[in-house]
Amino acid sequence: MSDSAVLISEVGPRDGLQNCAAAMPLAFKKRWIEAEAKAGVTEIEVGSFVSRRLLPQMADTGQVVEFARTIPGLVVAVLVPNMRGAEAAVAAGAHKITLPLSVSETHSLRNIRRTHDQVIDEARAIAEFLSGLPEGERPHFEGSLSTAFGCTLEGPIEEDSILRLAERLVEAGCDEVGLSDTTGYADPASVKKLIRAVRGVVGADKLQGVHLHNTRGLGLANALAAYEEGITTFDSSLGGLGGCPTAPGASGNIVTEDLVFMFESMGVSTGIDLEKLMACREIVAAGVPDEDLYGFLPRAGLPLGFVSSQT
Amino acid sequence: MSDSAVLISEVGPRDGLQNCAAAMPLAFKKRWIEAEAKAGVTEIEVGSFVSRRLLPQMADTGQVVEFARTIPGLVVAVLVPNMRGAEAAVAAGAHKITLPLSVSETHSLRNIRRTHDQVIDEARAIAEFLSGLPEGERPHFEGSLSTAFGCTLEGPIEEDSILRLAERLVEAGCDEVGLSDTTGYADPASVKKLIRAVRGVVGADKLQGVHLHNTRGLGLANALAAYEEGITTFDSSLGGLGGCPTAPGASGNIVTEDLVFMFESMGVSTGIDLEKLMACREIVAAGVPDEDLYGFLPRAGLPLGFVSSQT
């Protein structure tokens, strides 16, 4: 992370593309990642190491990681559902791996066919595997608490149950936990409350990031609430591409362009050049031409006299 | 205002409809206002008393006010650009009248062809006229500082200039001033800063409401910021209808449905039933069939297990 006040972690090449019907060709993925890095984005989740059969859009993740690692200063993140994915991530050279654990066991079973105990066991096995690696080859390991603000299958999840799972992920060896509003159920009050509660059990240094969706329009208000609560890492997706296909009705990542605009307008530095960031939309539009791209700022343009923290 | 923690002031029948190409027939306006009042909305800006030639969509405002006054408990608000409008508003029986003053003099000249001094003079004349009315017939008089967060013609406006205009409106006899982000230039930090500054010169009791737009996607984040700063009255428009036609590129009121959802999710009571509120969209869609209606909540639906403060 640079001198920026907040870290915008682009998840479009993973969370966005895995929800697109068509696979984006490798050449476009490379152009996209390179262009966003040039715009000042310093962390990108470039893919996931999952079954090619289930998610053919992610089949080239190894090559994407290999390419992304050549970009100076870029933290190359990937999502892994299990030990096999973690091994592939390490082999490819990812800097950060994220293992999702849905706090809704119903969602977990439907999404990755695993109980909570099974996912915790997997986290422990991955952590042990990583701890055996030489220092320089060991990626940062995050356990992401998905459906943390409620589940479209189970509704609200008991806070105590979430806190216990956060503790268990850290005990299993995760360097950090994240909170993910997979279903777009969060609101500014619940965001603040859950951040405080989870930090209360795992420590503030072990919860620094949130993954928020804009399903019901509260994405940026929730990001503001998280920022006010001290969160410094925010996942978002260029053009709002993606969502969660296994949670019915859930769609819509936070739009990176709008999120960066909010922080930059507030004088909170992101390190990102908004004009260059918005120019990346053309690459995405060309790479997955059947997909809609979202975002308010790209339609309305920057305000007259807007001064970014980058200028 | 009821026991609700915040007052949602619906401006769709005015700010929304005056920006629609076609005029909504009177019968639909009545159905809309009645249905929103039944959903729990306690203040509605039902129209404006302006030139029929310039805004034929508002030509029946007198009849709309007359009808709206028959709805028990509803505060019937109107916008007036001048003394003539104020006289018409009083004759019709409006409970609240709002006079806009654009803090961008360029915008003021283009929008209503008046300088700041001329608008302040008009405010003073209106206040004098109102003070001569019997107590029960005297409407609440608000001066609304439009383009308060920046202007598409002038860019950012000096804070000192805004504060002086706020003071002058109160000195001229306005009961209250409001802040209006006519152009969608506000961000959460500027919202908090300007609210504090204006309250510093006119007193907190004389600034209780904001009119925010969602042009660049920050509408709800800005509303959250205003709420955190103690603001209790929020303008919004059903389906996000409307914007400001004289500020190029500006469009998009905050969507009432999403705004109410944000507050209700946070446990902040609005007094509004979201299901009934969303049902009003059908009336608007039928009354101005060529207009797009916006809103995230209406597309995604309420979260599973959602509990409103109304139930």
What is the oligomer described by this structure?
Answer: homodimer
- CATH architecture descriptor name of chain A: Alpha-Beta Barrel
Strand content of chain A: 5-15%
Quick one: biggest sheet of chain A? Answer: 8 strands, parallel, barrel
Q: Assign the CATH topology of chain A.
A: TIM Barrel
Shape summary of chain A: globular
User: What would you report as the Rg of chain A, rounded to the nearest angstrom?
Assistant: 18 Å
CATH class division of chain A: Alpha Beta
Number of helices of chain A: 12
Quote the average pLDDT of chain A: 94
- Helix/strand class of chain A: alpha/beta
The CATH H-level superfamily of chain A is Aldolase class I
Indicate the topology.
The structure is a homodimer of 311-residue chains.
Chain A: E1 7-10, H1 12-16, H2 26-38, E2 43-48, H3 61-68, E3 75-79, H4 83-92, E4 96-102, H5 105-112, H6 116-131, E5 140-146, H7 159-172, E6 176-180, H8 188-202, E7 207-211, H9 219-228, E8 233-236, H10 256-265, H11 274-287, H12 297-300
Parallel strand pairs in A: 1-2, 1-8, 2-3, 3-4, 4-5, 5-6, 6-7, 7-8
Structure report:
2 copies of one chain form a homodimer. Chain A is of the alpha/beta class and 311 residues long. Chain A has one domain (7-300): Aldolase class I (TIM Barrel, Alpha-Beta Barrel). Chain A has 12 helices and 8 strands. Chain A has helices at 12-16, 26-38, 61-68, 83-92, 105-112, 116-131, 159-172, 188-202, 219-228, 256-265, 274-287, 297-300; strands spanning 7-10, 43-48, 75-79, 96-102, 140-146, 176-180, 207-211, 233-236. Chain A has an 8-stranded parallel β-barrel with strand order 1-2-3-4-5-6-7-8, surrounded by 8 helices. The model of chain A has no long low-confidence stretch (mean pLDDT 94). At the A-B interface, helix 8, helix 9 and helix 10 of A face helix 8, helix 9 and helix 10 of B.
